[in-house]
Write a structure and sequence with these properties.
Chain B: It comes from Bosea psychrotolerans. The complex is a heterodimer of chains A (500) and B (151). With 500 residues, chain A is mainly alpha-helical. Chain A has one domain. Chain A is 74% helix and 1% strand. Chain A has a two-stranded antiparallel sheet with strand order 1-2. In chain A, helix 7 runs parallel beside helix 22. The longest helix of chain A has 34 residues. Chain A is globular and about 70 Å long. Chain B has five helices and no strands. In chain B, helix 3 packs antiparallel against helix 4 and helix 4 runs antiparallel to helix 5. The longest helix of chain B has 24 residues. Classes of the chains: A mainly alpha (500), B mainly alpha (151). Chains A and B meet through helix 8, helix 9, helix 18, helix 19 and helix 20 of A and helix 1, helix 2, helix 3, helix 4 and helix 5 of B.
Chain lengths: 500, 151
């Protein structure tokens, strides 16, 4: 059994003392930031990117992945106990989770949330193996034109499916592509957009951009409003869910997993839309929909399963095709590139220990999360008492020091401050930052592939529709764009987000 | 629904995109364009700049037509102090050393918050300076002097 061999290899990698430690650190940090409102996985991962630079690639991806899926667990804890979603993806968990807590069933809600997350996380990880291997071997046959079309589809899908305005999202993609061009052109050696600064010859650093646009601008946005965090703790009660709770939650967990897995693979949709959709489906399927919002256990199990499954399956396009579907995946992809790994379908063949090690670490990490979240829930709730005015200077410090430490260059620190201003202005104008990062990461690869494709075809553009793969991908991209111009579908998308 | 231009979310966004696209295009004129068979270094930048200007125009026109107002307020002061604190750090780390740079950053950024309690900030500054030293100098073994004087 080939797959079995690979899984054994993966566990061998993931079980090394160093990787176990980074996996634990990742899920611990993830739980921590999942609990703290205002500090999300995007901020944390971009903040920690510079530090992971010194680690081996496997260890850094294991840790960053742990932060991402760990945050989905932590977010539910505060949603249930204090009606505060630690992450946007657990916002719907508040509806029924908090009601359960008010009825004295907080323990059962927490346990069901953790268990359904665990089940979904494991199924999601199995899906990575089941879909990833054939997908990667299929993609190995891709020519340059197919790659270009695939990346174009990734960018279009991310713009179409992202929350907000399509035109502004597309503009942000293009701006990201342009920012990705800064630096020395590999083909001609010409320095583009460097303004004569030698520091820019290698381009604008990935961490400079990510930290500025996600972390710094997020802190400023949070400082717009006065801190309004009520802090109260209450007794949690028994942690054991009753047998009937488990039976009621079983099918919703599986349905939530299916919904989350689907949205996780699609570019541009992440855990948030998955958990909203899973909740709506449960409400539609329920014999008595009025129970929802009054402490229905299905309303906790399904969305928690969905956001966790989505957090796992989002890795499928990133690890197998090298195409990030969400901003977080773009950050992890960037970490791979910084570590000298060329992302794409060849990763699985060329460095199997990376792919399988990360996959195996996800099983271990999900098990660690159940152990971390249930018995220690009291400690996590206490963390809510830390005021934001202590947290944000520390976040800013990590942003500045982390960026400085990469090249020991003060210019990077100044650039990060400038990107932070830009990021804040864009966030006020409701221009989504995720498409920009995706464009930045994919830009150089797109230019490379379109050049290669047109060089091979001697400038004949028909190569893009003569290759069946490229043609299909381009047609899907066009259909996605056209569908957004049709008012009926656009109204439906807005309605879906409004309901959330 | 009439919205003043200064508060018109899409109009401002459109103008920013147009401005960035124009700058990008003008600079890219210096790079050779090449042709479709062998793209020069100027090919991609010029095409992208024109796309950006196009999307910017579309955003501007829709902003002027629909007039969606911006939500909330601009946090100018927090933005100023956060930016300033990062710049201060960049300027201080090579001239004064790691510890003073960290403390300057913490003090200036804390000023961006809604409450500034001197004693709290002082404790936070010292704790973070020790923490940064522990992680970066002792842990990651980066060669930063704790204190320096190279003005």
């Amino acid at each position: 059994m080939d797959v079995l061999d690979h899984i054994m290899l993966g566990f061998g990698v993931a079980m090394s003392l160093q990787n176990l430690a980074y996996c634990f650190l990742g899920v611990l940090l993830g739980t921590l930031i999942g609990v703290l409102p205002g500090v999300g996985p995007l901020v944390t991962i971009s903040m920690l990117l510079p530090i992971t630079f010194g680690l081996p690639p496997v260890a850094s991806v294991i840790m960053l992945a742990g932060i991402y899926y760990g945050a989905q667990y932590g977010g539910s804890t505060t949603a249930i106990l204090v009606n505060l979603p630690g992450e946007t993806s657990s916002a719907v968990t508040c509806l029924d989770g908090y009601q359960m807590a008010r009825q004295g069933r907080a323990g059962a809600a927490l346990a069901i949330a953790a268990l359904s997350s665990f089940v979904a996380g494991c199924i999601g990880t199995i899906l990575i193996v089941a879909l990833g291997v054939p997908l990667a071997s299929w993609a190995l046959r891709f020519g340059a034109e197919d790659y270009f079309a695939l990346m174009l589809l990734g960018l279009v899908a991310a713009s179409v499916l992202t929350h907000g305005d399509l035109v502004k999202a597309l503009a942000m993609v293009v701006l990201g592509l342009l920012i990705g061009l800064v630096g020395t052109d590999v083909n001609s050696g010409v320095e583009r957009y460097t303004f004569g600064l030698p520091e820019l010859a290698d381009g604008i650093g990935f961490t400079v951009l990510a930290v500025g646009i996600f972390a710094v601008s997020e802190v400023v946005t949070n400082l717009e409003q006065k801190e309004t965090r009520e802090v109260f703790t209450k007794s949690i009660g028994g942690l054991m869910p009753s047998w009937s709770d488990i039976k009621t939650a079983f099918l919703p967990t599986l349905r939530g997993t299916a919904i989350g897995s689907f949205f996780g693979i699609l570019p541009g949709t992440g855990p948030s839309i998955s958990s909203f959709s899973a909740y709506m489906v449960e409400k539609k399927l329920a014999r008595d929909p009025s129970r929802f919002g009054r402490g229905a256990i299905e309303g906790v199990a399904a969305p928690e399963a969905a956001n966790n499954a989505a957090a796992q399956t989002a890795f499928i396009p990133m690890l197998t095709l090298g195409i990030p579907g969400t901003a977080t995946m773009a950050l992890i992809l960037g970490a791979l590139v910084m570590n000298g790994i060329q992302p794409g379908p060849s990763v699985m063949a060329r460095s199997p220990e990376l792919f399988w090690g990360v996959v195996a670490s996800m099983f271990i990490g999900n098990a660690m999360l159940v152990a971390l979240n249930l018995p220690l829930v009291g400690i996590w709730v206490k963390l809510l008492t830390i005021p934001y005015r202590w947290l944000f200077p520390a976040i800013i410090l990590f942003c500045a020091l982390g960026n400085y430490s990469l090249n020991n260059s003060a210019i990077d620190v100044y650039l990060c401050a400038a990107v932070g201003i830009l990021g804040y202005v864009f966030s006020k104008l409701k221009c989504p930052p995720a498409p920009l990062i995706l464009g930045y990461v994919l830009g150089p690869m797109m230019e490379e592939n379109i050049r290669r494709a047109l060089l091979l075809s001697e400038g004949d553009l028909s190569i893009f529709w003569k290759s069946p793969i490229s043609a299909i991908l381009l047609v899907i991209s066009a259909l996605l764009l056209v569908s957004m111009i049709l008012p009926a579908i656009r109204a439906k998308k807005e309605q879906a987000y409004a309901e959330g | 629904m009439k919205v003043k231009f200064a508060g018109n979310q899409d109009a401002i966004a459109g103008l920013i995109f147009i401005a960035l696209g124009t700058i990008g295009f003008v600079i890219a004129l210096k790079y050779s364009f090449g042709n479709s068979v062998e793209m020069g270094p100027g090919y991609f930048p010029r095409v992208l700049s024109i796309l950006l200007i196009g999307f910017g125009l579309l955003t501007l026109v829709r902003g002027l037509r629909d007039g969606v107002a911006m939500e909330g307020i601009w946090a100018w002061l927090p933005l100023l102090f956060i930016t300033l604190s990062i710049m201060l750090f960049g300027a201080a780390i090579e001239r004064l050393g790691l510890a003073p740079a960290v403390m300057l950053l913490i003090a200036a950024s804390a000023y961006a918050g809604h409450e500034f309690r001197l004693r709290e900030v002082a404790v936070l500054a010292v704790v973070m300076a020790v923490f940064a030293t522990a992680v970066f100098v002792w842990g990651l073994r980066l060669p930063y002097p704790l204190f320096a004087w190279n003005l």
